[in-house]
């Protein structure tokens, strides 16, 4: 490579990064403006997708970046939701600036214990240990009075954020709830994008590729994996807080292995290793679920939406092994190759 080519590459790299940085900003702007044109039902649907996108992004940090496949990630999601309700006052709104950090810290504290034990195992053993800890948390809320049993518990008044006696955010108002979720989604995406480009993120990528080699070069891989495990759990706890604030109720099903499996399917559907893939996968999964459970669209097949959704997921994995993001990248590569082939 000559000097002029090297200089051109150096100039093009920041431009490419800046070009890709515009897409998330544009997406956030579009999402923030959607309530102006969407009906109440579609607004709720976008809200649900955004919350699950945060949940999917949290698992992406583990599975896509660190190579840790967990079937117990819903435990942190459910703990964040339950703490939001349990710590909220009964007769007055709770403080958003207090409940959200507490939900995240509670999920992170449980992840610290779970991670310290489960990360000593690998492969299928790690999967089973995380599932076992998630089921333990599930039965704690399901079989005790503190969690309201199988019926769960209700949030009497949604939290609000006030400064100096002035209410800035009131989650009882639909628009405030919507924009709060979008801001949280944007913040989660930005945080993970920074982590991905940091030394910590590069270390996680190295651990996923070859942990033994990373350990030989002096990295404390256990500490890095534990940190990633706790950060992912805290982000899942934030998604749990938003779920509790949105629905006004929580139940043990939030901690079930079904939720862990669903969010794992989301990131596989979108494409592992990609932040955009996690968001796209969450959107595709929720939209497919809504489609297949709608009697107006699929008729008598609506009660069997789990079957049709499962078959669709099998087809997606079979024909798009790299997920939605990988398919788009392959299409662009083929297009560029075709254009180059047409040149004389």
Structural commentary:
It is a multi-pass membrane protein. InterPro entries: ABC_transp_permease (IPR001851), LivM-like (IPR043428). The protein is mainly α. It has a domain at 23-256. 74% of the residues lie in helices and 4% in strands. The protein is built from 13 helices and 4 strands. Strands 1-4 form a two-stranded antiparallel sheet. Strands 2-3 form a two-stranded antiparallel sheet. Strand 2 (160-163) and strand 3 form a beta hairpin. Helix 10 packs across helix 13. The radius of gyration is 21 Å and the shape is globular. The chain starts with a helix and ends with a helix. Mean pLDDT is 86; it is low at 1-19.
